[in-house]
Amino acid sequence: MLSTRVAGKKFGVTDFVNPSKLGESPLSQVIIEMTGGGADYCFECIGVASVMTEAFRSAKQGNGKTVILGLEKDGKPISLPSIEFLFGKCVMGSLFGGIKPKTDIPILAKKCMSKELELEKLITHEVGLQEINTAFDLLLQGKSLRCIIWMDKLAA
To answer: What are the residue boundaries of the Alcohol dehydrogenase-like C-terminal domain, all occurrences included (predicted)?
Structure first.
């Protein structure tokens, strides 16, 4: 089974930052220092307003783009420093990755069938329905990327 770090490296992730190990340093400042001015693209995937703000602040001035993928479950507004927009940063949302179902799903299906897009490599665990709590524990521990829960598989 792959750890999320190992899986990320296999799919091209170059650097990892654990915010819980930064002490008093803001995540955006660490990313700006790591990248020499900010990331070209920042993706927020979990739906937390404060993380959306940090992603925006982590983007490079001039042409940094922040893509919001997560839905803020409590409906909290995000607060972004307006001056950073004047220096060329932008933020946008993307529902389902911005795909156009009619044209893009057949292309993705073809790539999956030809093994050009290897989705099975994203699966780190498989459990039966009775082990659903194990699946959640693995996710919370950062040990699971994607877990398949089999409805017909009983625990041994």
So the answer is: 8-102
In CATH terms, 4-98 corresponds, of 3.20.20.100, 3.60.40.10, 3.40.50.10490, 3.40.50.720, to: 3.40.50.720
Nearest-CA neighbor of 67 among 88, 89, 91?
91
The β-bridge partners of 65 are 41, 90
The per-residue pLDDT for range 53-102, each reduced to its tens digit, is 999 999 999 999 999 998 888 888 888 988 999 999 999 998 877 889 89
Beta carbons of 39 and 66 less than 8 angstroms apart:
no
Q: Is 79 helix (H, G, I), strand (E, B) or coil?
A: coil
Domain ranges of the chain: 4-98, 123-156
Other beta carbons within 10 angstroms of residue 68's beta carbon come to 22
Measured distance CA(56)–CA(51) in Å, rounded: 9
